Sequence to fold (388 residues):
Amino acid sequence: MGTQICNETILQNSPVVQDATSGQPRAQSLSSRPRKKLIRRTDRDYSQYLRRGCQFTFLLMNIWLGSQFYLWVRHFETGGRLAYVSRPSGVEGWLPIAGMMNLKYLLTTGHVPVLHPAAMFLLVAFLAIAFLFRKAFCSWLCPVGTLSECLWRFGEQLFGRNVRLPAWLDIPLRGLKYLLLGFFVWAVSSMSAGAIGAFMHSPYGIIADVKMLNFFRFIGETGLIVVGVLVMGSVLVQNFWCRYLCPYGALLGITSIFGPLRIRRSEEACIDCAKCARACPSTLPVDKLITIKSAECTGCLECVAVCPAEGALQMGLPRIIAARTPKNGQLPAWAFGAGVGVLFFGIVGFAKTAGYWNSEVPRAVYNQLVPHANEASHPMPEDPALRE
Fold:
């Protein structure tokens, strides 16, 4: 699934002509093809400045949330000797499985969960972004994606190029993230609403965010080796984690397939320079496609940014809709980025104003559980509390 260009329209590099003797269609040789005249773009593309601004703003936001959460944890670990700061519910964005569990709980019971509701609303926000704006979360917001991009760009500067794995290896590896997603979807779908509620109200469920923090605070040798391999892989291969292992990205990619926006290439305006394909971090053959429908497209607009031909590439609406809209359905980069921001802050703002953002846990419970977070074990499926 990870490498399929789902129902994409592929345009061959060589146009088809009719053979004079057999009457059968054949490919016209590159040497005999008329060279297309370049009508150079007159507008300056600011999409990558805008995207990187969003990336690093969101990265700084996560650093701030993480720092505040660390101080909150330390307050309880020191028995209140350090000043109390409020718990930032935004850290629940790092609990995507809890978000999936709570979303199922909401859909099956009609009630917003009282524990880790922010994880669910953030998941809903990212799914909405993926549906309307491709996998823009991955390339515009995700802090892991930002760090991954910094690493592969560093590797490109260091070694002169990144490693591109052969298709026979790249294709199966891309499928790994879908297998991981399938496992998590199966695990969550097999739990009843009662089991989800019991899990969330267990000591482990209540302080799952603290457990996540402590994993990195007290990382062991095995964890360091794994992180080191991921870092080295990200230096050598573009978006190593995102491309091969991230189940969150797999979920958003599947969601994006059903959305309205696509990168679209005009056959008439394209000069076949292939700059778009070389710029694509997902290594999609943009120069050979009319419409990019792949689940691997992150909506980064890198291909549009490097295209020199006027009107050759654009992020736009389906042709049947585009014909009835201004500028043939083209969505400017500023509108794309603004749409991502409106969806994110709109859904988060709704959750906050409606009173659904913060977990309803008494401070006394945190005072009891946080200092002993490492002692809280993951509830197992055979636990009677998780059964109906």
Remarks:
- Residues 262-330 form one domain.
- Residues 47-77 form the longest helix (31 residues).
- Confidence is low (pLDDT under 50) at residues 1-32.
